[in-house]
Design brief:
Helix content: 40-55%
Distance between the termini: 46 Å
Mean pLDDT: 88
Low-confidence stretches: none
Radius of gyration: 19 Å
Strand content: 5-15%
Length: 125
Amino acid sequence: MITKEITLCGKQVTLAYCYATEIAYKDLSDEDMFDYAKHALESIQAQRDPDTKRTIFAIIACMMAYYEDADKSPVKDSDIMNEATPVELGTAMLTILSMRSEFYHVPKGEPEEKPQRGARRRKNV
């Protein structure tokens, strides 16, 4: 699980990215997190605002993954919809994209798969 703290609605909130995030996002939006990430990146490249509803669903999914119980979250979904500033939503979106990238990143120096001892090598035909 990848976690990062951001300010949302004037409060410190921890967002998390893991498979629970992806499942929660799918349940909320009926689309894969990959589709949201693609949309968000395209929006950034085109210098236009991303879909607010999708961004709020992504934020809620990240909060659900971290807090597990909605009552423990310092910010409620209605707070995000009514009180979050555009800058906070943008920061949250970039944080989510960053965590997703980190979650799927394979670090350099990771050992490559080696053939098992005694395994036959194929000859080129």
